[in-house]
Backbone:
């Protein structure tokens, strides 16, 4: 007889499907530390502000109807080849003039060169963000450079354990180097399961700091959730990150919904020379856990003390099809919202390094050449725009 035994219990069938990509559940001293966290209660980590993590009922049915409609599927992917920067490695061979340079590799993966150190945020070099090689969202453009050619990295920073931020083949490759990892509480269990030595893992609760290569890497709050296995125990934390060097400060949002805590993060660790802010994969069906472009600009302003200073790099878009919105919409919405707020935006192609302190920032609307339905920025609704210098209240952010 071939195939699965129809009498095999469902739990055993699911167990048979388990792959190393699911990672490992925290246990022992790690689990005890999680249970002591002030951010853990009622059996799971808690958000700083309540959040719905999944669509339910009618919302789920409406989402499915939209997501699988043919005309909607066409809009969610580029209509041509995404332009990837061709000379990334040659550009990176020259040190940044003022000590800070960012290279967006696609989605939320960013190489930050800051005050003589190299930090790699949420590196995903895999072909799919999925536990399986044959299914799941597939990359819409190639990685700009092979991981093995990138050179030494002082620290790898992970925001949370979802597949589009924590990628098994990428971590296994980095485990063979001497880099250290800074991760939220519980995520270290996955890394050790995949071969990263425990003494190279800094596992942090919110507002805890690891010091690496002259930098302070601080896990800061975010409004999201976790999980990658068959059982989602909510025993791994999610975080944004503030990285502070002798001369520069940068911020990576990870995945998060808008919340008023951005103001507190900015007051404690900012203002920042650059923020890397999630502005894609949002939906009205999960409004609390991902930000729209307008909310991303609001978060940037909050982090900067309400002033339109520093440079905003939009991340978490263009690389994977993860939401009902069109492929180009996050780029267009970011342009409209930033223009309305007087915020300086960097718009690099994947793999295009730039220095936030330079007068020559990448600002071309490169996605329009391959987008199926990219509107002019002026056509984005006014509600996507933020008044210059605005500090947005929690109520305005959740209803605007």
Residues:
């Amino acid at each position: 007889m071939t195939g699965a035994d129809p009498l095999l219990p469902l739990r055993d069938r699911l167990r048979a499907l388990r792959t190393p990509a699911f990672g490992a559940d925290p246990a022992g001293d790690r689990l005890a530390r999680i249970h002591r966290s002030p951010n853990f209660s009622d059996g799971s980590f808690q958000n700083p502000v309540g959040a719905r993590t999944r669509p339910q009922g009618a919302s789920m049915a409406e989402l499915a109807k939209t997501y699988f409609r043919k005309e909607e599927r066409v809009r969610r992917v580029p209509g041509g080849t995404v332009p990837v920067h061709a000379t990334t490695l040659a550009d990176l061979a020259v040190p940044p003039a003022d000590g800070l340079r960012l290279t967006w590799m696609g989605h939320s993966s960013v190489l930050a060169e800051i005050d003589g150190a190299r930090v790699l945020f949420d590196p995903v070099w895999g072909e799919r963000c999925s536990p399986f090689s044959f299914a799941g969202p597939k990359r819409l453009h190639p990685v700009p450079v092979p991981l093995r050619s990138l050179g030494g990295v002082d620290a790898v920073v992970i925001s949370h354990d979802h597949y589009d931020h924590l990628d098994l083949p990428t971590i296994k490759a980095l485990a063979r180097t001497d880099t250290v990892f800074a991760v939220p509480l519980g995520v270290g269990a996955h890394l050790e399961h995949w071969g990263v030595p425990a003494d190279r893992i800094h596992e942090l609760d919110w507002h805890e700091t690891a010091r690496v290569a002259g930098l302070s890497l601080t896990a800061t709050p975010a409004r999201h959730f976790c999980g990658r296995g068959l059982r989602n125990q909510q025993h791994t934390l999610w975080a944004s990150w503030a990285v502070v060097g002798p001369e520069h400060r940068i911020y990576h949002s990870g995945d998060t919904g808008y919340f008023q805590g951005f103001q507190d993060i900015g007051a404690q660790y900012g203002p920042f020379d650059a923020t890397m802010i999630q502005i894609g994969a949002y939906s009205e069906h999960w409004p609390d856990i991902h930000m729209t472009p307008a909310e991303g600009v609001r978060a940037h302003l909050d982090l900067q003390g309400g002033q339109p200073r520093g440079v905003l790099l939009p991340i978490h878009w263009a690389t994977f099809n993860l939401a009902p919105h069109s492929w180009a919409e996050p780029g267009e919405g970011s342009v409209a919202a930033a223009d309305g707020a007087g915020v300086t935006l960097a718009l690099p192609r994947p793999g295009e390094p730039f220095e936030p302190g330079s007068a020559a920032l990448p600002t071309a609307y490169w996605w329009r050449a391959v987008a199926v339905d990219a509107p002019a920025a002026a056509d984005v609704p006014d509600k996507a725009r933020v008044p210059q210098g605005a500090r947005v209240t929690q109520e305005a952010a959740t209803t605007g």
Remarks:
- The CA atoms of residues 99 and 115 lie 5 Å apart.
- DSSP finds eleven helices and 16 strands in the chain.
- The first strand starts at residue 40 and ends at 41.
